[in-house]
Amino acid sequence: MKITRKGISMDVPGKQPMVGEKAPDFSLVNIKKQIVHLSDLLGKPVLISVVPDIDTRVCSIQTKRFNQEAAKETDIHFVTISNNTREEQANWCAAEGVDMLMLHDPDSIFGQAYGLFVPETGRFVRSIFVLDAKGTIVYEELVEEQTNEPDYQKALEEAKALI
């Protein structure tokens, strides 16, 4: 897969999961230092928002947008994943008043499993995955130009259709 950042092309090695496939399992730590497994989130639809760096403008916008939805929609699990440190995520959440599930992956274990790690930047591909209650991917968006925002409306429609 190839992506661009400000028009500069970059290769993304690995295989990205596709619609219809089971989402790869993961175990990551939240900002409260608790381990969260993908299996803990199943039983409800799951919207996974992947951001390259929580401390950048578009990632901030993306996370705040889904945080607003998470506050209104209790029948969907919303989670944001980045490879920022726990401290970076916690500081950002405190400064922005965000109270959604944030998982950090500084070792890029999730990023490698989902084929989202970009070696040139050391960050993840901006992406959205919507999973049904059993963990099957029903929607995905891998944002080709990393400075663009994802299609929030489409992702939310797909998640809400599963309720």
From TrEMBL:
Pfam families: Redoxin. One of its GO terms (molecular function) is thioredoxin peroxidase activity. InterPro entries: Redoxin (IPR013740), Thioredoxin-like_sf (IPR036249), Thioredoxin_domain (IPR013766), TPX (IPR002065), Tpx_Peroxidase_subfamily (IPR050455). Residues 17-161 form the Thioredoxin domain. Gene3D superfamilies: Glutaredoxin. Keywords: Antioxidant, Disulfide bond, Oxidoreductase, Peroxidase, Redox-active center. PROSITE patterns: THIOREDOXIN_2. This is AhpC/TSA family protein. It comes from Enterococcus phoeniculicola ATCC BAA-412. The lineage of its organism: Bacteria, Bacillati, Bacillota, Bacilli, Lactobacillales.
